[in-house]
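Cross-posted from the bioinformatics board.
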Amino acid sequence: AQSVTQLGSHVSVSEGALVLLRCNYSSSVPPYLFWYVQYPNQGLQLLLKYTTGATLVKGINGFEAEFKKSETSFHLTKPSAHMSDAAEYFCAVTPYGANSKLTFGKGITLSVRP
Amino acid sequence: NAGVTQTPKFQVLKTGQSMTLQCAQDMNHNSMYWYRQDPGMGLRLIYYSASEGTTDKGEVPNGYNVSRLNKREFSLRLESAAPSQTSVYFCASSEQGGRAHEQYFGPGTRLTVT
């Protein structure tokens, strides 16, 4: 079985500051990892995903995440926050090689201060 | 190309009433999913359909039924609504269950049961 831990429910940063949203996973087999973003009153949209290969993954809107197997982590970063980044962010995992379902973390709300 | 569409967008039910949430995708995806989203709980899988003609229970199936009508459509039915089913419901689809194929989400149905 797999699980995802997103510590904290809310992160607040100033516009232009570094964004760091943490995600740790548990999986008995190598995982595929995803970050999704949800803007207010909308569905979820894929930001980026890790499957195999390069451990640093770049996504849309300047976000990137690094898969660290030794730390079982997949933290999401963006060098400079923009007001439009305010949203809820979800990390999700599915085991490699199986016709499996995504397991989502509880989500983190990102606020951006002017 | 509309992606994943859901109807209705909003619904208010009285306890004991029944209703069906509709979902359709035009991406020729094999797999479809129903989730519910509650504050602080992330997304929890209710039911999924790995391919046309198959359905399976997810994490929170009690009180719900599903029908995979054809490859495009996947409906969720509440036979006797309860206040605990007040939630936002999302439908999603993917080329193939889990794996490296991201899920595409609909805009959601906000359901209130009084």
